[in-house]
C-alpha cells in the first residue's frame, strides 16, 4: 500500500524527462538522465538546434563553445569558467563514457543568463529557445605575467602539534615537525631549480590559519603548497591500517572522508585568539562566493600534478585528488593545494615520514611536479595570448 501511494505521488509531480531546443522550425530533443545529483543532459545532444560544440581539453575537462562564448567545464567541478569568471553551477558536470553531462540548470538558467540576447528558457515546456540576434563576444582574459614564486606552508607549529602518532607506537611523531622538515627540503629543492620560495614559517612557531594566505598574497606568491600529515579516525574499524597520500584543492567537501580531513585541519583555528579569526563563518562565505576565485581549475591541475609526482616515490597507496574547504587555502589568492603526505597514525608510514632521506624524496617529488605544472601553466598562458 505504502509503495503504491509513493509511486502515485511521484507520478503526480513527474518532472520533464527531456529538454528541447527550438531554433525557428528546427528542434532538437535530448533525454534528461536522473542521477544522484539531479537531472543531467548530454550537452552535445542539444545540437544542431543549439549551435554548441563540445571538445575535450585534457582529462575530465571540456571546452563548450556556443555563439561567441567559450566555457570550460570540468568533471565533478560545480563551476563553469568563462574567461576569468567562475560561474557556480547547481551541480557538477559528469563525464560518462567520454561524454559531458551537465545539470539541467546550466541549460535552463546559466546559458540564458550568459546570452540573454540569444537564449531564453521556457520551464513549462522544458524548452530552450534561440532568437536571431548576434551574440556579444566574451571578454578576453587578461594575461598574467609569468614568474615563479612558490609559497611553502609547513602545517601547524608552536602549541599546535597537529596530529601525533602512530597508534600504539612507542616513538611518537608530531605533524608539525614532519611538515617543517619536508617544507625545508621542498624549499631547498625548488630554489635549486631557480624558483623563489616564501615559507610561511621556518621554525617551530604558530602562524594562524587565517594569516598564512595573506602572507602568501603579500609576498606575491604564484602558488601555495601546504604540507600536512594525515590521521585516521579512531572510530574506524582498523584505524592503524590506514595509509597513503592525497592532495586537496579548495572546494566544498563532498565525501565523509573529505569532511573528516577538512575538520581535522581546520581544528587548528582553536589555537588562534578570537581577534585573529574573522567573525561569522568566512569559510562558507568564501566557498559560496567562489565566483571570485579564479584559481579553481589551476588548483585542481596543480593537485593532480603533485599527486602524480608523489606516486612515483611514495609506497602509497595513492588516495587521489580530493576537495575540501580548508581555511588555510581560502585566503590564498593563487592556485593552492594541501598535501597530506601520509598517515602518521600508521606505524610503518610514521617511520617513513620521520626518515630524513624519505622526507627529501617526498619534497623532491613535490618540487619536480610543481615545476612541471608551472611550465605547463606558462605554456598555456603563452598559447592563450597568441
Ligand atoms: Zn595538518
Structural description of this entry:
33% of the residues lie in helices and 27% in strands. The protein is of the alpha+beta class and 386 residues long. Strands 9-10-3-2-1-12-11 form a seven-stranded mixed sheet, covered by helices on one side. It has a six-stranded mixed sheet with strand order 16-13-17-20-18-19, with helices on both faces. Helix 3 crosses helix 10 and helix 7 packs across helix 10. The termini are far apart. The structure holds zinc ion (ZN). The site of zinc ion has 6 residues, from loops.
What's the topology here?
Elements: H1 2-12, E1 18-23, E2 26-35, E3 38-42, E4 52-56, E5 61-66, E6 69-74, E7 79-82, E8 85-88, E9 94-96, E10 99-103, H2 104-114, E11 119-122, E12 127-130, E13 149-154, E14 164-165, E15 173-174, H3 175-192, E16 196-199, H4 209-218, E17 223-230, E18 245-250, H5 256-266, H6 282-288, H7 296-311, E19 318-324, H8 327-330, E20 336-343, H9 347-354, H10 356-385
Parallel strand pairs: 1-12, 13-16, 13-17, 17-20, 18-19
Antiparallel strand pairs: 1-2, 2-3, 3-10, 4-5, 5-6, 6-7, 7-8, 9-10, 11-12, 14-15, 18-20
Helix pairs in contact: 3-10, 7-10
This protein binds zinc ion.
